[in-house]
Amino acid sequence: MTAPLRIAIAGLGTVGGGVAEVLLERGQDLAERAGRPVKLVGISARDRNKSRKSDLSSIAWFDDCRALATIDADVIVELIGGEDGPAYELVKAALGARKHVVTANKALLAHHGSELAALAERNGVALKFEAAAAGGIPIVKALRESLLAYGIDAVRGILNGTCNYILTKMEATGQSFGDVLAEAQKLGFAEADPTLDIGGGDTAHKLALLSSLAFGAAPDLSLITVEGIEHITPEDIGYAREFGYRVKLLGIARRTADGIDQRVQPAMVKAGTPLADVEGPFNAVVAHAGAAGPFFLEGRGAGEAPTASAVIADIMDLARGDVGPVFGRPAGTLKPLRAAPPERRKSAYYLRFQVLDVPGVLAEIAGHLAQSEISIQSMVQRARSPGEAVSIVMITHESPQGAVTRALNAIAASDKVTGRPCMIPMEAG
Amino acid sequence: MTAPLRIAIAGLGTVGGGVAEVLLERGQDLAERAGRPVKLVGISARDRNKSRKSDLSSIAWFDDCRALATIDADVIVELIGGEDGPAYELVKAALGARKHVVTANKALLAHHGSELAALAERNGVALKFEAAAAGGIPIVKALRESLLAYGIDAVRGILNGTCNYILTKMEATGQSFGDVLAEAQKLGFAEADPTLDIGGGDTAHKLALLSSLAFGAAPDLSLITVEGIEHITPEDIGYAREFGYRVKLLGIARRTADGIDQRVQPAMVKAGTPLADVEGPFNAVVAHAGAAGPFFLEGRGAGEAPTASAVIADIMDLARGDVGPVFGRPAGTLKPLRAAPPERRKSAYYLRFQVLDVPGVLAEIAGHLAQSEISIQSMVQRARSPGEAVSIVMITHESPQGAVTRALNAIAASDKVTGRPCMIPMEAG
């Protein structure tokens, strides 16, 4: 194997620029490890004249990224982004032309993963996506190649650095969600349109991929319940701390007796456990690998170098000749996932009610909870100035989500309760 | 690729029995993921008549493990252990007979890694050892295949579960090293002869392998400074807690301006950092991967399922056809490692002196430290009953190890100082 592996990159933003730089500047080390040269032979981006960190003037340029599918290259690196449009067209064309594809595009794979996996395998090429799940953390490889002996019971993770940064900052400063978000946008830690991050959509894309690898199923976004962090208040974060928890946006995929439970949800994670201690822009994943026990992996979840590192890892797999099926099993054997009904999920819950300071309100809340057979582990009510709304905070014993939702709907209808009750599941960590 | 991958196992202890069980009971799932059957075709162990968890009566039995090198098998799994003797002979014979080898034997590879890697590559076969470094944690794969883009600056880890169990227990109970060790032996958490674990030798074996993967060098035990945990007292652990640290036995390999610094050493790890929070029998590794940042991996470091999980991962690599060079680069390109001189290592140090309660003792200690240009960050001295020995505890600013050792030798010679001064480096975590 001395023929070079020829790489073309579509998209020269932060990550694409980083990948190009590594290929140009660390080519010698990569070639020694791969046993063959790894060579950048083509690039495409929106603006040819933009100034870039590396001198790319000697690399063949293509105005239309789709042209890369037709050039003499072995691997197309897709770093354009977006679930449809040029990224989708390029990946399809490249796979169809029997070129390996490496991508960081979680949206694309969460939406079209099954189709693209089948196309790749039909053409005998690889579609690799380490950079699409948790930035630099090698969790795709771990689930696909390492943690196989006993199967996976659950994958749980902090998969969105923007959300984790916002929640960590809210906890440290007591600021509101809106203030921290505005600041993060100014600092470039959050997008101008942050919906996909803070609404949980990005975490859902990544969870769909991890779930597919873990459970041998086709990725299916429609089976994931998604809740974002927009409604988390400094008050909730303060109570969490008081109870010995921290609020984290988790992606969770778990095998249960009722099927696979998949959700993206802010959760109260027990302080002192690995997931609770993940700070700022870091990502982390816990993989529960049967008798082999839990594995915890933490690292930077986004940004140039961590993402480029994951892309380079995929390229190096291909340089060594490791093609392998896209989601760890041949696309034809990926089963549709049997989804667990959300209402049967069991968890302890943090509940916060905003109530008027009038007689009978606690009795009414307690009555509705009792009617749904939800029992209370602990409760806090703080005095406020007379006439102000009061928070009543409770932690329930383990209860089915459906029962808790029913009770909360009944409680929300009371004229003594102001605003929508807040409900956050507790996670052991 | 539908021909089965034929596996033979040498050694049917805890781990070997676990691997056999997974191959027999989860063969269907493994075959689907590998795209071909993975089949147990031969076994060898010391005692044929020992009762085992799985029914192995249909698998060909060999009294002499070395016979496995000659049978119709593709992969020999060596789980005999020991740096020489049958394990070494079997691995050499198997590689020479162009059979892949998977092993959990860190002693063998730390001592004979270069020779065996060259032999494997000459014969076009693999020698895989995920289970030899940190139990179930996929750190070998991460260093060999994932964290390549920016090179590795340092690998630091808790690599011996027995030591971590003992230190965690000493901290929780205040018991002495000897008492906890005796208890651990009774519970089967420590070997009857625990020297290799508590003396740091096992950690050194594992560190030699991680270092080799990280720095592209041949494993070389002779370059690792090794210190065990036998001299750690409950008093040191108590002071560590007081200063906001926890005592952990670390294996550290770090690129410095003077070369690669490799050592196994109890260290005070800053509380609240991931390594400090690793409890009981768990292992963990931090890989500092250049601009991609630190990666942290934690999991069970030993025992049947975690180790079998790592062995199965290696087998599955081979089933997919991923052979690749043993230490991540062709054996011929592994450079001898340039070792950093230990005396130039810079660190802050925890120092504890046992002194007589007489005038002038502090002046004498402070004088010797000043003479070696070591400055003190903080100090604690506690009153004792009159006439009893007193502990003086100091944390130094960052100082070269050579200077601290010189000062300590001078201090130890004083007739006001009883016993050997204790010196533990501080680690940021």
Number of helices of chain A: 13
Can you tell me the CATH architecture of the largest domain in chain A?
2-Layer Sandwich
Radius of gyration of chain A: 24 Å
Helix/strand-derived class of chain A?
Answer: alpha/beta
Tell me what portion of residues of chain A adopts beta-strand conformation: 15-25%
Give the strand tally of chain A.
18
CATH homologous superfamily (4th level) name of the largest domain in chain A? Dihydrodipicolinate Reductase, domain 2
How many separate structural domains of chain A?
Answer: 3
Helix content of chain A: 25-40%
Low-confidence stretches of chain A: none
Shape of chain A: elongated
Report how far apart the termini of chain A are: 46 Å
Q: If you had to describe this structure to a student in words, what would you say it looks like?
A:
The structure is a homodimer of 429-residue chains. The first copy, chain A, is an alpha/beta fold and 429 residues long. Chain A folds into three domains: 5-132, 3-Layer(aba) Sandwich (Rossmann fold); 140-301 and 326-342, Dihydrodipicolinate Reductase, domain 2; 344-427, ACT domain (Alpha-Beta Plaits). Chain A is built from 13 helices and 18 strands. In chain A, strands 7, 8, 9, 10, 11, 12, 14, 15, 16 and 18 form a ten-stranded mixed sheet that branches. In chain A, α1 (14-25) crosses α11 (304-319), α4 (106-122) runs parallel beside α9 and α6 (161-173) crosses α7. The two termini of chain A are 46 Å apart. The model of chain A has no long low-confidence stretch (mean pLDDT 95). The interface between A and B is large, with 56 and 56 residues.
